[in-house]
Amino acid sequence: LGRDVRYFEIVDSTNNKAKELAGFKGLSHEAGLTAAEGMLVIAEEQTGGRGRLGRSWHAPYGKGIWMSVLLRPQVCLEIVYQMTMITAVAVMRAVREVCGIAPEIKWPNDLQYEGKKLCGILTEMSAEADRVNYIVVGIGINTASAGDLIPPQITHQMTSLSEITGKPVSRVKLVQEVLQELEACYDSWLAGGFPELLEEWKSHCNSLNRQVAVKTLHEVYTGWSMDVNSDGALLLKLDNGEIKKFVSGDVS
Ligand code: BTN
Predict the structure, then answer these.
(1) What are the residues whose beta carbons fall under 8 Å from the beta carbon of 75, sequence distance 6 or more?
(2) Can you supply one Gene Ontology CC term for this chain's record (predicted)?
(3) ipTM of the complex as predicted
């Protein structure tokens, strides 16, 4: 991954750019006009960075790693979600390696350090029938200090690598490590290694085996977070004993 690098100073969103360069299947694809698997889109700044659940993602100039990787696995739609979980594992490993800290994974796929968010992941895809055409894995890692990075009203929920370690972080080194770990995880996923990756994901997840609140678009549910299944869904034992499955939401 990352042999074809498309670097931009400013883009609206690296995910949008990657999707644009991925193009459509059909003639353009057969004629080799579309970007190949592994393409990395990376930018200094995003003017329209996007997050999960239609949220925006603050991505100021030089203050983080704003990157998207194009993948073209021959898999069916149902397991694409696993790729997001695998990405969280890969970024967690890379941050641990390069910065010497151990972030936790918050369901569904944030990386946190001492309860504050360090990294977000947004996976998007294009499919035909039930087959995947491509997946774009978007990763945002806050590297610079939170003071200048985050609008004051959300500072308390966000952190950055330099704030945590008290040192500047080499973005190049971290991007290289993320790509290396992502490639290793991706290869092992393609070879059927998801169960082990899921175990690794769970062992670093801070949202399991505890009393939590899950906020969906319309409601808030409270209960005991029992497990995460292989679709990435969170299983919550509600206070009334019923077991409810969540595919998206915010857990606290
Ligand atoms: C989230 O936590 O809600 C996901 C945030 C994902 C942000 C990254 S930054 C690079 C890529 N491009 C985007 O527009 N979003 C993702």
Answers:
(1) 131, 132
(2) cytoplasm
(3) 0.99
